[in-house]
């Protein structure tokens, strides 16, 4: 089964942190230890990377923490630990990079404080079109000579193209979709594929077959739960309440001061193919017009998933189930050398049977949470979606009483209403050499003297949570690496 989803990216100052959910994640030790052992990235052990992740985290006064007292739902969430002591689940209350009710992303935290530096020039309304390579003076290694840039001007109808000379290093941070697109257009990728597009270069560029390969993402399955309580969730009645607005205006808090995510439950024990996460999303009434467009749902599927779509004052929540370490891998390719053309993105979700099994386990864990003693006091009811394509598998009347529908039914809804978490990564992954990766452990593109990539595309496997904080930590580490290179260049210049 094939369907299309919207895959937006942040194309402005701050990147995708200007449109994401702003959730802060401290990182999972096992992810980095696995990179060190299985991918031989020895300098990515947890003890090495942890200080950079801590440096990237917002300070307590720069973020918003959702307390247990926020609502009846968060209080019920806080009681789960004592009820499920036999489980190895890890509970995380939501933390946001939100300050005084406003988005506090990498633009505000890192770029704005550097505006006055005389060695920084920011160009907006520009687009990197191509990287121009040459051989170094010894003729032994490829290096970046120029970056070809296109700029739009209000006074001139056509783009103005010019070259920026690269004196030290070029760092690419175009994201998991457009970083590989830029590399391929510039002549870096699988040589056999490049020949189809007649991509030429003055340099003898290395063969990098992994450019655009190994795309991974978290696929989430939303399950709507209605409750009988009044007041604890986001809906039209709550948003129009004058007290809601006063709380936001004077305190920067309340429903208008966050994105509705209240907490997480992570299972990171056992085989990685069984690692899953549950996200508690405190939204009772889901706006059909807005959410259906964002998700690209068909109307019937949307209404099957949210049967009370017409009730703007509905109380409840959505619990999202996701496999944390999906094994399926997709691709990013091109069919045009024009950088303004969209790349061909195939996430290839659910290609591996293990991902289906993992997601089913996550959904059944979500049922345990919803039907727990902690949540039963709220008068919960799971609304198993009635989808036309799944009618042969359920939900049957008994499923609404037992809340144990068949695996066949769960697989069917996973394939019909699964959504991207918008956590794409891996398309220029880190590794040991050019046959199995694109960059080394220091973000340097293999066999290119002065080119680094620092964005989500270098993640060799998914991170077990929201990736933005991890990528910021990687950028902090990259800054240290680049500072050493810059100092080396300066010393050589002084000596000469």
TrEMBL record:
Pfam families, sorted: GMC_oxred_C, GMC_oxred_N
Coiled coil: none
Top-level taxon in the UniProt lineage: Eukaryota
Ranges of residues in domain Glucose-methanol-choline oxidoreductase N-terminal: 175-189
Single annotated GO MF: flavin adenine dinucleotide binding
Similarity comment text for this entry: Belongs to the GMC oxidoreductase family.
Protein name, UniProt field: Neither inactivation nor afterpotential protein G isoform X5
Source organism: Glossina fuscipes
Gene name per UniProt: LOC119641521
């Amino acid at each position: 089964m094939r369907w299309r989803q919207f895959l937006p990216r942040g194309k402005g100052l701050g990147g995708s942190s200007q449109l994401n959910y702003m959730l802060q994640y401290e990182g999972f030790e096992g992810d980095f230890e696995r990179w060190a052992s299985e991918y031989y990235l020895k300098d990515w052990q947890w003890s090495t990377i942890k200080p950079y992740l801590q440096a990237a985290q917002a300070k307590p006064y720069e973020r918003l923490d959702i307390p247990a007292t926020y609502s009846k739902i968060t209080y019920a969430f806080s009681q789960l630990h004592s009820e499920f002591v036999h489980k190895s689940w890890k509970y995380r209350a939501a933390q946001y990079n939100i300050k005084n009710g406003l988005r506090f992303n990498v633009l505000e935290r890192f770029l704005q404080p550097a505006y006055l530096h005389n060695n920084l020039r920011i160009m907006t309304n520009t687009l990197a079109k191509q990287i121009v390579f040459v051989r170094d003076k010894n003729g032994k290694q490829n290096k970046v000579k120029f970056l070809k840039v296109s700029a739009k001007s209000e006074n001139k109808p056509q783009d103005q193209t010019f070259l920026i000379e690269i004196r030290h290093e070029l760092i690419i941070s175009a994201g998991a979709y457009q970083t590989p697109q830029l590399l391929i257009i510039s002549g870096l990728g699988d040589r056999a594929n490049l020949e189809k597009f007649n991509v030429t270069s003055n340099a003898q560029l290395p063969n990098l077959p992994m450019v655009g390969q190994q795309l991974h993402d978290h696929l989430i399955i939303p399950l709507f739960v209605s409750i009988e309580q009044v007041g604890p969730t986001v809906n039209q009645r709550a948003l129009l309440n004058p007290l809601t607005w006063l709380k936001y205006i004077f305190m920067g808090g309340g429903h208008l001061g966050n994105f509705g995510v209240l907490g997480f439950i992570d299972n990171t024990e056992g085989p990685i193919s069984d690692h899953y996460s549950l996200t508690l999303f405190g939204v009772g009434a889901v706006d059909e017009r807005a959410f259906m467009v964002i998700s690209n749902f068909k109307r019937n599927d949307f209404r099957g998933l949210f049967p009370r779509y017409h009730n703007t004052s509905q109380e409840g929540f959505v619990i999202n189930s996701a496999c944390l370490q999906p094994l399926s891998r997709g691709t990013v390719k091109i069919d045009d050398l024009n950088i303004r053309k969209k790349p061909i993105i195939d996430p290839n979700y659910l290609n591996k049977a293990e991902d289906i099994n993992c997601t089913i386990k996550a959904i059944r864990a979500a049922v345990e949470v919803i039907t727990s003693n902690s949540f039963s006091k709220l008068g919960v009811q799971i609304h198993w979606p009635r989808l036309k394509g799944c009618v042969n598998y359920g939900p049957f009347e008994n499923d609404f009483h037992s809340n144990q529908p068949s695996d066949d039914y769960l697989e069917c809804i996973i394939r019909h209403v699964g959504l991207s978490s918008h956590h794409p990564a891996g398309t220029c992954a880190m590794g040991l050499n050019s046959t199995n990766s694109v960059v080394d452990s220091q973000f340097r593109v293999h066999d290119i003297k002065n080119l680094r990539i620092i964005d989500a595309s270098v993640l060799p496997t998914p991170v077990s949570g929201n990736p933005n904080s991890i990528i910021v930590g990687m950028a902090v580490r990259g800054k240290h690496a680049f500072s050493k290179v810059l100092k080396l260049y300066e010393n050589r210049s002084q000596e000469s």
